[in-house]
Amino acid sequence: MAGNSFGNLFKLTTFGESHGVAIGGIIDGCPPGIELDLEAIQAEMNRRKPGQSAIVTQRKEPDEVKFLSGVFEGVTTGTPIGFVIENSNQKSHDYSHIKDSYRPSHADYVYDKKYGLRDYRGGGRSSARETASRVVAGAIAKQMLKNVKINAFTSSVGDIFIDKPYQDLDFSNIESNDVRCPDSAIAEKMIDRIKQIRKEGDTIGGTVTCVLQNVPIGLGEPVFDKLHAELGKAMLSINAVKGFEYGSGFCGAKMKGSEHNDLFNIDGSTKTNLSGGIQGGISNGMDIYFRVAFKPVATIMQNQETINKDGEKVEMHGKGRHDPCVVPRAVPIVEAMAALVLADYLLINKTYS
Amino acid sequence: MAGNSFGNLFKLTTFGESHGVAIGGIIDGCPPGIELDLEAIQAEMNRRKPGQSAIVTQRKEPDEVKFLSGVFEGVTTGTPIGFVIENSNQKSHDYSHIKDSYRPSHADYVYDKKYGLRDYRGGGRSSARETASRVVAGAIAKQMLKNVKINAFTSSVGDIFIDKPYQDLDFSNIESNDVRCPDSAIAEKMIDRIKQIRKEGDTIGGTVTCVLQNVPIGLGEPVFDKLHAELGKAMLSINAVKGFEYGSGFCGAKMKGSEHNDLFNIDGSTKTNLSGGIQGGISNGMDIYFRVAFKPVATIMQNQETINKDGEKVEMHGKGRHDPCVVPRAVPIVEAMAALVLADYLLINKTYS
Amino acid sequence: MAGNSFGNLFKLTTFGESHGVAIGGIIDGCPPGIELDLEAIQAEMNRRKPGQSAIVTQRKEPDEVKFLSGVFEGVTTGTPIGFVIENSNQKSHDYSHIKDSYRPSHADYVYDKKYGLRDYRGGGRSSARETASRVVAGAIAKQMLKNVKINAFTSSVGDIFIDKPYQDLDFSNIESNDVRCPDSAIAEKMIDRIKQIRKEGDTIGGTVTCVLQNVPIGLGEPVFDKLHAELGKAMLSINAVKGFEYGSGFCGAKMKGSEHNDLFNIDGSTKTNLSGGIQGGISNGMDIYFRVAFKPVATIMQNQETINKDGEKVEMHGKGRHDPCVVPRAVPIVEAMAALVLADYLLINKTYS
Amino acid sequence: MAGNSFGNLFKLTTFGESHGVAIGGIIDGCPPGIELDLEAIQAEMNRRKPGQSAIVTQRKEPDEVKFLSGVFEGVTTGTPIGFVIENSNQKSHDYSHIKDSYRPSHADYVYDKKYGLRDYRGGGRSSARETASRVVAGAIAKQMLKNVKINAFTSSVGDIFIDKPYQDLDFSNIESNDVRCPDSAIAEKMIDRIKQIRKEGDTIGGTVTCVLQNVPIGLGEPVFDKLHAELGKAMLSINAVKGFEYGSGFCGAKMKGSEHNDLFNIDGSTKTNLSGGIQGGISNGMDIYFRVAFKPVATIMQNQETINKDGEKVEMHGKGRHDPCVVPRAVPIVEAMAALVLADYLLINKTYS
């Protein structure tokens, strides 16, 4: 049962390999009557795409999305929205050296073992290129969500962390620098670190924090489809993600109940919010905030020893165009996945009225 | 779309409230021909059940599971396995005080908001009692998995951590103490802390680490149903969970690619295993290890100020029988969820042969 | 992927074999706040159960349904509703003769081939006993549907047909005779035929017609989950069903467009209704009517030649208690399945508001 | 929950309106390693497409399918197969007259009611144009099924029926005439009738019979996903279908058990096959044969009185290019849907090994 669909009522199914003809997807279940702002969708695409700045991969893709159905006279019809994004800047020859070899910590080895063959060019389906389709769907979901505010940002690169609670950050600063960190001083340090890492031909990890505000109360479907469980699955499905925590997260594991409980105000809001906006798996109206951990990208420009299909040792030289740090480009992907989850659960909640 | 089912091909659907007549479930898709070891299933149940030791809740439930179908002459038939576990030791009067009040950091408030009403007794469906059904299904999944080794243990309570890598631990020690920590010295400290916390009428959080060994290569369904994404969702659906990380986890976010990459041995195994046994969302044959963070249980014996349905301030006194620390009882639940995920993905993988 | 669940948002999962401990199911997704009329549910059960009259099987089951969860103080909570129905009147020794033999036109052979083993007693999971669970869920769905009228009746037994359009029938007569035919004169002929067939130790087929009135406009999800496609699947999943047609059905295949088209009245209703209340797979507010064909039950009291597991010829004598004609007992099952489909699609439609 | 996906393990999701930019789909779950015969796929497309002969619609579409992913060096990779088919011969002005009016027995009215708006051109999503995507997927499924023989043919047009059992027909004759009837004499009568109907500006219905041979034993998932139930849903989802019957069908409802039962041969095959190759919802190795009823297409060239959006009477003149009888073009669609069901259930059955 291949896993290329996400969502229940607002469902995205995607296709496409890094160096194939095109990537794209179908959104099934988008409600009718939404006037789509196509520029806003393209803007989200542009946030994600490669070749934007000096600290990300130099592959240049226009990443223009073309809608093929489901929109009539600018308004969604309730019928499935099919879309494609052409691949144009593939340099497949960059990958001929891995045709028979397995790059360490990549999916090359397991794809061969699972499927018996693979499109090796650019990592094929395992490449993060497929996340472009997620951003298209997430952008449409955002337009469905209207009042909900979704803001993600880079909260750490390597061992450089933002040292303030998110409430003290100005989200309007997120897009003001290449690393998408709303704290300008920390952003500079992050950028310097990434440039350093790039010179070394290495890569580095980081974390993305995401804050969802004005989320309606009542989203979430216990006991297995709790809101934070679905958010966690959504984030963990993004390339290079190694961890997810929400609210007090792993720190909460060190606390006592008397310290951790969020007491109520008279209007149902809570005085503190260590819960992270979700209790019993259902949103309670408070801010939902979570953090996603990204490992350093596996493709480095340094030499590595590895093996090939026949079990022989080979030396691999990193080639192709790569990201020293994926975290800035992951920010819009995290937002897109959050929007998809919220849109889906919002539709589910309509059945309770 | 209510979320009371887990899995695709090996699917568990559960029902039951804490103080209802019974809890139970249906397992659909268990392959035929498996000779069920009923004692082993009951043994897993006994690991989870309340009233076992001085450091957990004193509610005593026999937690005997009764199978109603799907097993003929001791062997699974491939037809759905229905089972029930009777609730016997409900002290519903213990909960009359919360009939109209909302316990802080519990699901009381959101259930009322979402559904318009709730079975308040013992937390109703939001109570961790429903996890007993998961353990039944997980126990059956374990028997399907045969060679796979699944071991979970308490890795921290509050700020008391095991300070060794899991490879240096003896898993046969896990059941040797009430806190299910395989390091005896650390276990003692944990137990002392929990007893202290209990005297204070408070609760404390902790983490569970789980190690899966001998997992076949190739399990996982990119791009959305990656193995670790499904494991993450499974764990996050357990009561009180606030975080999930696998392999290098959040630490990996601080590392460089040259430090993080797992180089190959000639036979396809890797020299290091920061990947945590999963690459590109697919198992690669190495140990899969992950950590789950549990917040302190919200029910404390100290007084708390809260509100009731009419938005009035009320004072709440903790009553009922509760856990000062859920982590030891969560250990078999973590194993059960891991077994369910692996069983499901193992069945999916048969379609590739 | 075992197929024991039906529905998407209003979902029923069932379990249970004919001679197992019990049968039952879980209804997930029933909206909260419905005051359940338990007597009405039991009344539907009584319509289906065996041992009711001289023209059906003599197996006597009380068929009392016991609810285990999901209902609090008589009102649905929105949490899953688990229920069991105990099997009490199994005469398993009646089936010892088929332990190793395959009854012609039964599922014995294919179950052994598919699963490798089977619970042979009473046909195990393949027995129509499992339909009792469907009737429980259908009864609850009916209570959710309020204004929709669902009426099914026996429209033919063998070559004895009702010769009037349904509009000329009095549905209040359906329960007035054992064969559930609203035309008293035809009903008598049907009963006589069935008694005759019973004396011969034979069985006979028939058809059930079902009429759904006051169905809201807009139910149905093109292009694959069209309303009539889901109704068709629902009916075809009932034991012994060999055909489904709605509206003009197979007769419509002989007609011309100028004869078949339903012209509009000013208010959107249609002058004729050969469409059968569904156009483009979506309900249009007119009566939905369909017909379901039942083959004669395979268990006959006459001797038959057959084979056993080892491929040897054996002679089989029909034993056990059986129905000469299942059609009267199928009437409430047809209604139950129709109610499940409508409840599900009604919930889905709420997402469009 | 929009219904634009079909299948579980071999899953097709489609998009596209009659006069939109393009139609297409994604096939998720096609096993890796299948060498795709692209010409065979295009040949199936050509069987379905409009403008082929004098007895079908004169709209000319090249219906060339373009694959965008999931195939590498001619072999399926196990990753999702995305494909598009461009719409080129839309004459949208032909439909301006129905912009605000509702064609009788079409989906115009219900789409407006359900979604609040619709793409009126050519019927939008409700047009049979979307079936082209089904044929692509069905063609790929056929290649996965290898030894299974799938043959569908026109068995009746109006009141002209083939009067032989299918065993006496030569399937190699199906493609020898425009009406796809393997009996040449009957075919001529059918063609004459259709030409007559066309002159009258009218339309006529008919039936398609389909025979599946060499189907492996054991396909089907009781109790709700029985093989014939899924086949029924598949066929009923095709435009204009009003009925489905398999094996003895509605005739079986008139028979007695002693007449209807299929006795076994020693090798497990049956002497007769009124069951139609499926018992208890599971294939038994015998031929599966079923019949699908198509009503006459609703668009006729004669004038019809109807209403518009504002509830006013208007007169409608049939325009556009239409089919006097869809049945010949439905033949490859019926085969495609049968192939999709078998491919899906074949994959499901692998989990039992």
Automatic annotation (TrEMBL), chains A, B, C, D:
<dbReference type="GO" id="GO:0008652">
    <property type="term" value="P:amino acid biosynthetic process"/>
</dbReference>
<keyword id="KW-0521">NADP</keyword>
<feature type="binding site">
    <location>
        <position position="48"/>
    </location>
    <ligand>
        <name>NADP(+)</name>
    </ligand>
</feature>
<keyword id="KW-0028">Amino-acid biosynthesis</keyword>
<dbReference type="GO" id="GO:0005829">
    <property type="term" value="C:cytosol"/>
</dbReference>
<comment type="pathway">
    <text>Metabolic intermediate biosynthesis; chorismate biosynthesis; chorismate from D-erythrose 4-phosphate and phosphoenolpyruvate: step 7/7.</text>
</comment>
<protein>
    <recommendedName>
        <fullName>Chorismate synthase</fullName>
        <ecNumber>4.2.3.5</ecNumber>
    </recommendedName>
</protein>
<keyword id="KW-0456">Lyase</keyword>
<dbReference type="InterPro" id="IPR020541">
    <property type="entry name" value="Chorismate_synthase_CS"/>
</dbReference>
<comment type="function">
    <text>This reaction introduces a second double bond into the aromatic ring system.</text>
</comment>
<feature type="binding site">
    <location>
        <begin position="125"/>
        <end position="127"/>
    </location>
    <ligand>
        <name>FMN</name>
    </ligand>
</feature>
<comment type="similarity">
    <text>Belongs to the chorismate synthase family.</text>
</comment>
<dbReference type="GO" id="GO:0010181">
    <property type="term" value="F:FMN binding"/>
</dbReference>
<dbReference type="GO" id="GO:0009073">
    <property type="term" value="P:aromatic amino acid family biosynthetic process"/>
</dbReference>
<feature type="binding site">
    <location>
        <begin position="239"/>
        <end position="240"/>
    </location>
    <ligand>
        <name>FMN</name>
    </ligand>
</feature>
<feature type="binding site">
    <location>
        <position position="280"/>
    </location>
    <ligand>
        <name>FMN</name>
    </ligand>
</feature>
<keyword id="KW-0057">Aromatic amino acid biosynthesis</keyword>
<dbReference type="GO" id="GO:0009423">
    <property type="term" value="P:chorismate biosynthetic process"/>
</dbReference>
<keyword id="KW-0288">FMN</keyword>
<feature type="binding site">
    <location>
        <position position="321"/>
    </location>
    <ligand>
        <name>FMN</name>
    </ligand>
</feature>
<feature type="binding site">
    <location>
        <begin position="295"/>
        <end position="299"/>
    </location>
    <ligand>
        <name>FMN</name>
    </ligand>
</feature>
<comment type="subunit">
    <text>Homotetramer.</text>
</comment>
<dbReference type="Pfam" id="PF01264">
    <property type="entry name" value="Chorismate_synt"/>
</dbReference>
<keyword id="KW-0285">Flavoprotein</keyword>
<dbReference type="InterPro" id="IPR035904">
    <property type="entry name" value="Chorismate_synth_AroC_sf"/>
</dbReference>
<dbReference type="InterPro" id="IPR000453">
    <property type="entry name" value="Chorismate_synth"/>
</dbReference>
<keyword id="KW-0274">FAD</keyword>
<dbReference type="GO" id="GO:0004107">
    <property type="term" value="F:chorismate synthase activity"/>
</dbReference>
